[in-house]
Amino acid sequence: MSARSMILDEIRAVAAEHDRTLARLTDELPLLDSGLDSLCFAVLVARLEDSTGLDPFAAAGTARYPKTIGDLIAFYDEVLV
Hints:
Helix content is 57%, strand content 0%. The protein is mainly α. It has one domain: Orthogonal Bundle (Non-ribosomal Peptide Synthetase Peptidyl Carrier Protein, Chain A), CATH 1.10.1200.
């Protein structure tokens, strides 16, 4: 499964479990406008770490945070290669 598919599937699952309405998920969509709140993002990142065995935020070595859906996907693509 590609990072894109895995991340988008998890975003949809977390949103459904937390009764959140998602915006249309495009690469340009700012994460803050996605419909997820901070708890949802925490759950999402924890699940992605469980699925991949990697924490790209720690692996980045710098305080770098994705701003859009596309940034988030690229961020995981970098460490999953």
